[in-house]
Amino acid sequence: MRPTSLLGGRYELGDVIGRGGMAVVHAGRDLRSGRRVAIKVLHRHLAKDPLFRSRFRREAQTMVGLCHPAIVCIFDTGTDVIEDGSHATVRVPFIVMEHVDGQTLRDVLRLGELTLASAVQYQLGVLSALEFSHSAGVVHCDIKPANVMITSEGAVKLVDFGIARASGDLAPMITQAQAVLGTPSYLSPEQALGETADISSDIYSAGCLLYELLTGRPPFVGDPISVAYQHVHEQPAPASTDVARLDAVLATALAKSRTDRFRSARAFSEALGSAAEGIVRGPRTAPAMSGHAEVAAVDC
Hints:
Blueprint: E1 6-7, E2 11-19, E3 23-30, E4 36-42, H1 44-47, H2 50-64, E5 74-83, E6 89-98, E7 101-104, H3 105-111, H4 116-135, E8 138-139, E9 148-151, E10 156-158, E11 165-166, E12 175-176, E13 179-180, H5 189-192, H6 199-215, H7 224-233, H8 244-253, H9 265-275, E14 293-294
Antiparallel strand pairs: 1-2, 2-3, 3-4, 4-6, 5-6, 7-9, 7-14, 8-11, 9-10, 12-13
Helix pairs in contact: 4-6, 4-9, 6-8, 8-9
């Protein structure tokens, strides 16, 4: 049974536009303003678990404070009370966020038509979002193509702060099925080792993203355990972009040691912009795309 069609007496639920292991996302409409929205609803069975309710609540609290053009906006949060099938009720939390017409970078990569200039522009958009979130003390912890959306106008939107954490938070990462949360293909070496994630961890994951944008594949492939091992102990195959300075930027971002990586998203962005000079012309904003699909962010 899906949640009631009206949440909080205000938000009308439409079709499902995204699913993940933690939540489902509906297209929706705010009846007060008439605005189109996306509504992320925690799965009912997870709503009974305090750990997942806490994670979902933390995502909402984190994103409410992040107002930036390259980060999806949160408008509201709430709780819906539904029956669980055993004559009992469950309080299911939801997040009301900006509805984005576009597609994810994962979809763009699958099309296989990404130019070098577009790859750099999209990466600069992601780094802009990270620079802002890091300045607010928030580490994303799950940078990957599925969590980056490109709007129909070509703008970058970073989404899904579901496992984000305060940069000074030294508590262990929440785990699911005994595994550190995060996506293996984009996991930093320290995350693979179960250590605390920080700004440098996002830099590494962004480096993995750039590697895939430039080559069409993540730096390491295989089963999750094998990929985690490679992140810690092995070097990826050279990207061979034919632009030596660009290859050097990638190598710095993917350094195994945190201290050898770029110290900030801004430093990464400046180095990338300098290395790509002559490749990317005009304003450093993501190029427009032809055609789009209706999508929304969920944890993948």
